[in-house]
Amino acid sequence: xxxxxxxxxxxxxxxxxxxxxxxxxxxxxxxxxxxxxxxxxxxxxxxxxxxxxxxxxxxxxxxxxxxxxxxxxxxxxxxxxxxxxxxxxxxxxxxxxxxxxxxxxxxxxxxxxxxxxxxxxxxxxxxxxxxxxxxxxxxxxxxxxxxxxxxxxxxxxxxxxxxxxxxxxxxxxxxxxxxxxxxxxxxxxxxxxxxxxxxxxxxxxxxxxxxxxxxxxxxxxxxxxxxxxxxxxxxxxxxxxxxxx
Length: 245
Ligand SMILES: Cc1cc2nc3c(=O)[nH]c(=O)nc-3n(C[C@H](O)[C@H](O)[C@H](O)COP(=O)(O)O)c2cc1C
Prior knowledge:
This protein has about 240 residues and is of the alpha/beta class. It has a single domain, classed as Alpha-Beta Barrel (TIM Barrel). The protein is built from six helices and ten strands; from the N terminus they run H-E-E-E-H-E-E-H-E-E-E-H-E-H-H-E. Helix 3 crosses helix 4. The chain is globular. The structure holds flavin mononucleotide (FMN). Flavin mononucleotide binds next to loops. Keywords: Flavoprotein, Oxidoreductase. This is NADH:flavin oxidoreductase / NADH oxidase family protein. It holds the Pfam family Oxidored_FMN.
């Protein structure tokens, strides 16, 4: 058997996660934002067609582009938003378009925090009111510091969106904690200058992420899987050195 064949065979083998969930092979598609939703942020038949084709390729696990948890907090125009059940029928169809072909469909859930182009949202919030660097200020507004109540609301929204995904037939969710979005902003000592229970030490800066995780697990019982996207942390290098999850 050649080296190439060995590698090919390994990629074809199922992967059992520690919790017993089996991914049918070792191929996964990373999240790539589609911006194919309507301007009111509803998923469309375009999603169904695209994901049907990806699943037909035999990929074991497909992660959606980032799905927002709040219509008032978009990262890009035409993001999908899941905050209630208004799109339940097409979400079911989206999940089925992948799972009926034997692949898994995981929804990536996100809140942009301050990383949202000026004018897209009425107001942007972040861990702290830290402006962008001078070269970015024409594109991104300085955010307001989130209140405690707003933080709790966002945590609950992550849980609600995850539960809707589960009910619609998605295989799991991925919490977007990377790429400079809200959870990443909370994790970063450069962008989180708080001195309350949400900031001041590495443990407190990660509390927001941990609470989102726990909320999703609590709402979705044990069978719904969640994973974290912590790779490619582009907020300088200091943010996550000692994180253990
Ligand atoms: C068009 C485009 C959209 C992307 N959208 C997302 C996204 O919604 N969520 C995310 O976590 N990463 C997103 N990414 C990052 C990719 O998932 C991936 O991490 C990145 O392309 C690097 O992977 P590579 O080294 O295989 O190219 C996007 C990348 C591209 C090119």
